[in-house]
Amino acid sequence: MHASLKSSQEPRLKPLARGTLLIASVSLLVLTSACSNSDGGREKANEEKPKGPSATKVCDASITGQAAQELRKLTGADTFEQTDEVKLKSVAQKLTSSSSTVRSACEIYLPDASSPAVQIDFSRRTEHPTRSSFESSNADEWIVFPIGRHARASGSGADIYFSCPAKNKGVPDLIRGDLRSSNSALSEKDTDFARISILNSVSRNLADALGCSEESQLPEKMPVSSEHWTKN
User: Which residue, among 116, 114, 64, has the nearest Cα to 88 in the 3D structure?
Assistant: First the structure.
C-alpha cells in the first residue's frame, strides 16, 4: 500500500521540476537580452555623443555668448578640433613687453579639415587704419564697427585695434587682433558680423588677461550698427 502510494506521487514531482527549470531558463534569457540591449543603448549613445570641443571650449574658452553662436553659424558646425591649444595667459605675457606677432593665438579646425576655419593672430602696432589708409588700399569696401580704437571686416577676415598700455617703453600701446577665416555659407553681411563678433570676444578676454579691459573699450555684446567705407 505504501509502496503503491510512493510510486504514484513520483510522476507528479518530475513535471514540476522541469517546469521550474524552464521558467528559470526563460527568466535568464530575458535578463541577458535586457542587459545586451542596455549595453547596446549605451554604445549607441556614446557613438551619437558629439566629438571634439564645443564653440565655448575652443581658444581657451574665450568665445562666449553671442560670439559662440556666431561661430556655429559661420562654420555650420557644433563641435571643432584644435591643434596645440594656446592659453591666453601666455599670449598676454608675450604682448606685455614685446612687439612680436603672436601667430595662431586662436586656431579652430572643422573635423577632418587640413586648414583652419578660423585663425587669429595678435601683435602690437603704432597706429590703426584710417579713412585715408583705406583709400590707398586695394580694398573696395570696409565694414567699420564702433568698438575699440578701430574695427573692420573686409575680404576674408576682420581686424580689431584696441588700446592696452605696454610695460616697456618703446613698445606700442595699441594691440591688433587679426582674424582670417574660410568662406562661409552666410550672407556677406552676416559673415562680416560673425567674424568681428568672434574676434571681439577673444580680444576682450585677452584684454582682461593683460589687465586693460577698461582701456580696450571692447563691449561684451557687439553693436549691430556699422559704417560702410566704399571708394567712389
Answer: 64
Average pLDDT rounded to a whole number, residues 167-187: 90
Angstrom distance (rounded) from CA 200 to CA 124: 16
DSSP reduced 3-state for 84 = coil
**Strand, helix or coil for residue 165:** coil
DSSP 140: S
pLDDT at 12: 46
Burial class (CB in 10 A: 0-12, 13-18, 19+), 192: buried
Per the prediction, the chain carries an average pLDDT of: 82
| Nearest-angstrom CA–CA distance, 215 and 59 | 23
The helix/strand/coil state of 81 is: strand
> With bands split at pLDDT 50, 70 and 90, how would you rate the model's confidence at 79?
very high
Element of type H or E holding 161 = strand 157-163
Nearest to 95 by CA among 158, 167, 200, 149: 167
- What pLDDT score does 48 carry? 54
- Reduce the DSSP state of residue 94 to 3 states and report it: helix
Residue 218: other Cβ atoms inside 10 A = 25
The C-alpha cell that represents 64 in the structure block:
562666449
The arrangement of strands across the sheet holding 157-163 comes to 102-108, 118-125, 174-181, 157-163, 150-154, 141-145, 227-230
Judged against a pLDDT cut of 60, whether residue 33 lies above it is answered with: no
User: Quick one: what percent of the chain has pLDDT higher than 90?
Assistant: 59
Structure-derived torsion over alpha carbons of residues 92, 98, 99, 102, reported in degrees to the nearest 10: -40
